[in-house]
């Protein structure tokens, strides 16, 4: 017959106090929040408290005297019996059970669940008794799994970010370093984690950075921009310095204060700004030179011609009556001067603005450009421009100048035998394309000093909210495509 909890406790209690002690301890066992089960050497259940009833779903009267394996999933029973057998021979009185202190139990409804378990043994006059204390940790494991999933999701989000994200502790040691940081700095994460953040910045900025972070920590502000005008410099693995747009945030955690910086490589932006500054300076110089040239031509050609005409007019006025033949000769010479002045005026005006645009329209003006290009440089030029192409200002002048600048670049740099020009209206925008079969170039290579032709195209396009796409490679020619939205032009259905 199975023993009751009181019977078991009476066997291990001192004589004379067994009944009282057993009753007290039985109450303690039944008030415990953890399941407590005692088995004999045959693994028959002798003690089974109220918490065990709640955890396993079996009432006490149906489980006392039953083998313990009834509460264990089938696949774990053999291993459990071997574990208890080995434990019984160790002489140890108590220990934890299961890998990482987690084993699995079986409820009355057949549902398996994880348990945190410990086992103890006691030699009694009636034989060796083993007691297990069990705690259902299903919710804890579920929370841990959710936390692990959340951590994995956050890690994936951080690694999918386009900006570098780096976290450091109060000692400025790197504790987080995402894939974008690997790509930007060139260091793999296993060579950076645990290293000082100073490894990623030029030596001349390290002291200043440490002071900046220390001041930031004292402000109590959670986030802010870093650096003068939000640009600081980083150091790649290959020793190259580069500009970054940077923000910093701080978080007080249980492990201490953490600082996180979000970094964006702005090398292209800074280079573009420098090129724009250079272009603006060069454009200003070119404008001043153009003004000087026009002033010289007006003075040297038109002003001198007009002065000569004035002098000849005065001579004719004074001598027409007394020397009619000489006056007639002088008038003929004056006509030559007038024709020259008219030609000079037209040439100067044409340089300032193509008169063909006003007189004939955009398509004939581009045809004139192509013909002049072929005549001057010996490069064939194929046109694809609608004859009825009409654009309002400032678009007509912009397209004309872009074609002019593009063909000028072909003449100067391409060594081409053929150039193709296409201008069309498509899907609510103007599309201009200039191709050549010349030597091409590496688009990613740094621009040569003083090379402003492509920058001029970008500037003109951006003024009209357009874009420039440049495609080229050594030996494969060059293609320039410019797209500008045209107000009032509906997209094709």
Describe this structure in words.
There is one protein chain. Helix 12 (362-377) packs parallel to helix 13. The chain contains 14 helices and 17 strands. By secondary structure, it is an alpha+beta fold. The protein has helices spanning 5-12, 18-31, 50-56, 60-63, 77-90, 138-160, 179-185, 203-219, 267-319, 324-352, 355-359, 362-377, 395-414, 453-463, and strands at residues 35-39, 45-48, 94-96, 102-106, 112-124, 127-136, 164-168, 174-177, 223-225, 231-235, 241-253, 256-265, 380-385, 418-426, 429-436, 467-472, 478-485. A hairpin with a 2-residue loop joins strand 5 and strand 6 (127-136). It starts with a helix and ends in an 8-residue tail after the last strand.
What are the key terms here?
single chain; 493 residues; 6-stranded antiparallel beta sheet; Beta-Lactamase; 46% helix; disordered N terminus
Uncertain stretches of 5 or more adjacent residues: 1-6
Helices, by number, come to 14
Q: How many separate domains? A: 4
Summarize the main sheet.
Answer: 6 strands, antiparallel
Average predicted confidence as pLDDT: 81
Distance from N terminus to C terminus (CA atoms, Å) equals: 91 Å
The residue fraction in helices comes out at: 40-55%
Compute the gyration radius: what is it?
Answer: 46 Å
Strand content: 15-25%
CATH class group of the largest domain: Alpha Beta
Q: Structural class from helices and strands?
A: alpha+beta
What is the level-2 CATH architecture name of the largest domain?
2-Layer Sandwich
- Full CATH superfamily name of the largest domain: PAS domain
Based on DSSP secondary structure assignment, what is the total number of beta strands?
A: 17
Could you please say which CATH topology of the largest domain applies here?
Answer: Beta-Lactamase
Q: Which outline best applies?
A: rod-shaped
